[in-house]
Amino acid sequence: MISLFLLPMLASALAAGSLSLLGRHLILRRLGFYLLPLHQLSVLSASVLSLVSLEGASLRLIAAALSSLLFAASLRSSWLRSEHGLLVAYVVLMALNFFLMRLSPEVEMSLSQSFFGDIALLDSRLSLLLILMSLLVWAALGVFHRRLLRGSFESALYGQPSLAQGLPLLEMGLGLFVTFCLLEMGFLFSTAALIVAPLILSSTIQTWKWMTLVSFLCSATGTLTGFWISTQFEQVASTPAAVLAIFMFSGVCARVRKSFF
Q1: Residuewise pLDDT in 10s, the chain (261 residues)
Q2: How many Å apart are CA 118 and CA 240, to the nearest integer?
Q3: Helix pair 56-74, 124-143: axis angle to 10 deg
Q4: Cα–Cα distance between 170 and 1 in angstroms, integer?
Q5: What pTM did the predictor assign?
Q6: Degrees (nearest 5) of the Cα angle 7, 11, 13?
Q7: Domains contained in the chain, CATH given
């Protein structure tokens, strides 16, 4: 049974680990709340593109690229840099998505899938694409590690809403990866992979190297565990099982680190 989901399992685990590597940067740069309107904007872009007969991986990639570019441009507006401004943008975009739901039943299905997602249903093409994108994220984070780390700590002190300040191509690439994950694997899973492990572990593991390593392992292992649970129990969906497993593994690691080290 597990062999049938081997490729989606590998792709989801690698993507979850890669998102966790980005998660600590997002937390330090105070970008967590930006995921709300970014998700709704990506759904809106995919919905509009679906009305012009685009579908599959091409639709997801184009929608992710378009929404990440539009969102990056919108950050020039000062009111969007506040939590209340982000909430307004989220509500307005959600209203637009619900408006489009009345025009096409496919939009309604896309909106539901993009929130809850189902990582077990990734097809082979999308799985291979996620694996490739995850490997590219690893390479980018390795090459620009020092510069990103310095920028994250500066953002924590001074507050700059940017994922890779001064590196526009890198920022565009990382934004594309995050947006594609939100759109393809769902808001629930992608946000958990980004935020849960780095946030829980940051309170007990102070060394950046160990924190990122343990975050990666918790996110990837939690994803694989969620897949295994869903194959053993048909009534359990893979996405919520993976999210809960990531939370559990992160909490256990944080407790062990606090108690014994």
Answers
A1: 556 678 888 999 999 999 998 888 787 777 777 888 888 888 877 777 776 655 666 667 777 777 777 777 766 666 666 777 778 888 888 888 778 777 766 666 666 667 777 777 777 888 888 899 999 988 888 877 777 767 666 665 555 555 555 566 777 788 888 888 888 888 889 999 989 988 898 877 777 788 888 899 999 999 999 988 888 888 888 888 999 999 999 999 888 877 766
A2: 9
A3: 40
A4: 39
A5: 0.82
A6: 115
A7: 2-256 (1.10.3470.10)
Structural contact between residues 228 and 189, judged by C-beta atoms closer than 8 angstroms: no
C-alpha triplet 13, 243, 228: angle, nearest 5°: 60
| Burial letters 182-218, b for 16+ CB under 10 A, else e | bbbbbbbbbbbbbbbbbbbbbebbeeeeebbbbbbbb
Q: Are 239 and 119 in contact (CB under 8 A)?
A: yes
